[in-house]
Write a structure and sequence with these properties.
Elements: E1 2-6, H1 21-32, E2 39-41, E3 44-51, E4 54-61, H2 73-76, H3 83-86, E5 87-97, E6 101-104, H4 113-122, E7 128-135, H5 145-149, H6 157-163, H7 165-178, H8 180-186
Parallel strand pairs: 1-4, 1-5, 5-7
Antiparallel strand pairs: 2-3, 3-4, 6-7
């Protein structure tokens, strides 16, 4: 069974915050794939279905972000289930620009409390993750990072994230069917550069923006998100 886990904070006050984009993606997948209604599980809500003939479970931990790993504890000792192959964690990343995303096969928590909790529960950093950019191009002087990630998107920022959903869904489907290396290779979050028009030709008609808009130049491995502490569980 493939397990896709979206990280977020429970409660209506967090639904529209930057830190909950992992839940946004999981809800989108459940809707488009027409999975059955969510059901309660220990520390989580889940729904099961099939994608291209593979059994898939979507999971939303119901603890606060800094305790997200609790929902994964039952899977660690599960027979015929391998962390490196069968788990994908969907998470926000302030180190990536808004409108971009990255699949990664492993890595450190990098200060993200949700990933730190997942790592503690699994006892390893070798699990796949889909990192969704929420970072701003220009930092606001004096802004507290914790307030930023727990704040609502402004203006059209939420729409930028939602425009990524088709690309993210395609990438998750690739991970389910062909694994994380294939997802990394086929869904890099970097759109192809347009071909220059031939001399003297008319300008091409306007087209929708690409599914992801990464910066023009980016190192192969960028730092993980240095997120501040989140509120303790109720």
């Amino acid at each position: 069974m493939k397990l896709v886990v979206g990280l977020g904070n429970p409660g209506p006050e967090y639904e529209t915050t930057r830190h909950n984009v992992g839940w946004w993606v999981i809800d989108h997948l459940a809707d488009v794939w027409r999975f059955p209604p969510w059901r309660a599980m220990p520390d989580a809500r889940a729904t099961d279905g099939e994608v291209d003939g593979r059994r898939v479970r979507l999971l939303k931990p119901q603890t606060f972000m800094n305790l997200s790993g609790h929902a994964l504890a039952p899977y660690v000792q599960r027979p015929f289930w391998a962390i490196a192959n069968d788990l994908l964690v969907v998470v926000d990343d302030v180190a990536l620009p808004l409108g971009t995303y990255r699949f990664r096969a492993k890595g450190s928590a990098g200060g993200h409390n949700g990933l730190r909790s997942v790592e503690d529960a699994l006892g390893t950093q070798e699990y796949a993750r889909l990192r969704i950019g929420i970072g701003r191009a220009d930092a606001i002087p004096g802004e507290v990072l914790r307030d930023f990630v727990l704040g609502d998107f402004t203006g059209g920022e939420a729409a930028v994230v939602r425009e990524l959903f088709p690309a993210l869904r395609a990438g998750v489907t690739t991970w389910i069917t062909d694994g994380i290396v294939a997802a990394m290779n086929r869904h890099s979050g970097r759109p192809a550069s347009p071909e220059p028009p031939p001399p003297g030709s008319s300008p091409p008609p306007e087209s929708p923006p690409p599914e992801s808009l990464p910066p023009e130049s980016e190192p192969e491995s960028e730092p993980e998100s240095p997120l501040g502490a989140l509120p303790p569980p109720a």
